[in-house]
Structures
1.
Amino acid sequence: MKHAILIAAGLALALPAFLHAEPAPWFQWRSKATGTLVCTQTPLGPGWEKSSGPYRDARCEKRMPVK
């Protein structure tokens, strides 16, 4: 019984964090070797540099307002 109360309390405290969660932003990355542009949510490695962003979509067309 005590475990159920602790689990319920933990879920109640964690719920607001889940309600305010947003998807990860997209960024446009440029290859240092070829100049190719790619739109991803995560860095591609040392051979790439962030070109622009953040964006809301996977095509890097809709800019996201910066807070």
2.
Amino acid sequence: MSSTKDVTDSTFEAEVLKSEGTVLVDFWAEWCGPCRAVSPILDQIAAEHPDRLRVVKLNVDENHVTADQYQVVSIPTLKVFRGGVVQKTIIGARPKRDLENELQEFIGN
């Protein structure tokens, strides 16, 4: 079972911008091979750090407004939000170890 949640243009503000915790948004599309490769890694990270990081997914093909607003031009793009503000952007698929290193300040140990 996935530990991530889908968000849309209409739910983005409530689910991400007004969230009290740290939220990683995976901007992805169905046809994107690297997006499909990173998805199970993000599921694992979400399951391993549920108290520190919430992972949500936004399909860029179905939610152009939000993707455009955050200038997503390459996918997968991962953006970490805290307090409604982008704290970090990671572009491209990466192995789990690399993603964990990039997210260390948010997931800690």
